[in-house]
């Protein structure tokens, strides 16, 4: 029977390869954040990239309030139309927040008081106001929510408040 000769390998050789692999991965992982930071600074001129201190966030402290208005009526009546909604904004929102607002079209769903899943076109109204005015603006926002629920027979108007830094 022919004999097959294999080169001898020491048991330490696989461990050495494993150690080299682990060391390579560690060095690669340690260098990734540095490379990422260097790429982020490519936009700045070379002379200022290293010397420029990190800036703080621009803007002043504001509150961002989003109100979510549904258009389906729980009583089964016709949905609130664009014309009706924009007339409501002109009559109730703009006088309380004359500095500006944003309205975005949306689509949502919820489970009503009877357990039925309602799917509807909706609107997101976004208000930005200085944090210092939150005490005086809060009642205005609640008046808007209450007026919409009464006028259009809605069960609720969702409200989301978030802190923001704003610069115009």
Model description:
The protein is an alpha+beta fold and 168 residues long. The protein has 2 domains: 15-49; 60-166, Alpha-Beta Plaits, CATH 3.30.70.120. Helices cover 38% and strands 26% of the residues. It has helices at residues 12-40, 46-49, 82-93, 134-152, and strands spanning 60-70, 102-111, 117-130, 158-166. It has a 4-stranded antiparallel β-sheet, covered by helices on one side. A hairpin with a 5-residue loop joins strand 2 (102-111) and strand 3. Residues 1-37 form the signal peptide. This is DUF3574 domain-containing protein. It holds the Pfam family DUF3574.
Could you say what the CATH topology of the largest domain is called? Alpha-Beta Plaits
Q: In terms of per-residue confidence, which ranges show pLDDT below 50 for 5 or more consecutive residues?
A: 1-7, 18-44
Strand portion, in percent? 25-35%
Please tell me how large the radius of gyration is: 30 Å
Number of strands: 4
Strand order, main sheet: write it out.
Answer: 2-3-1-4
Order of helices and strands: HHEHEEHE
First-last Cα distance: 89 Å
Structural class: alpha+beta
List the defining traits of the structure above.
alpha+beta, 168 residues, disordered N terminus, Alpha-Beta Plaits
Outline of the structure:
This protein is 38% helix and 26% strand. It has 168 residues and is an alpha+beta fold. The chain is elongated and about 65 Å long.
């Amino acid at each position: 029977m022919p004999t097959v000769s294999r080169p001898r390998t020491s048991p330490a050789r696989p461990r050495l390869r494993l150690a080299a692999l682990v060391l390579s991965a560690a060095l690669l992982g340690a260098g990734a954040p540095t490379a990422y930071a260097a790429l982020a600074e490519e936009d700045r001129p070379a002379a200022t990239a290293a010397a420029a201190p990190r800036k703080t966030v621009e803007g002043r402290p504001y509150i961002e309030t989003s109100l979510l208005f549904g258009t389906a009526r729980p009583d089964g009546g016709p949905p609130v139309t664009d014309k009706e909604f924009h007339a409501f904004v002109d009559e109730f929102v703009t006088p309380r927040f004359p500095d500006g607002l944003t309205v975005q079209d949306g689509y949502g769903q919820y489970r009503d008081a009877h357990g039925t899943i309602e799917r509807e076109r909706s609107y997101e109204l976004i208000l930005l106001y200085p944090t210092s005015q939150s005490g005086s603006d809060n009642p205005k926002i609640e008046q808007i929510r209450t007026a919409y629920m009464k006028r259009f027979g809605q069960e609720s108007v969702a409200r989301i408040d978030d802190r923001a830094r704003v610069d115009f």
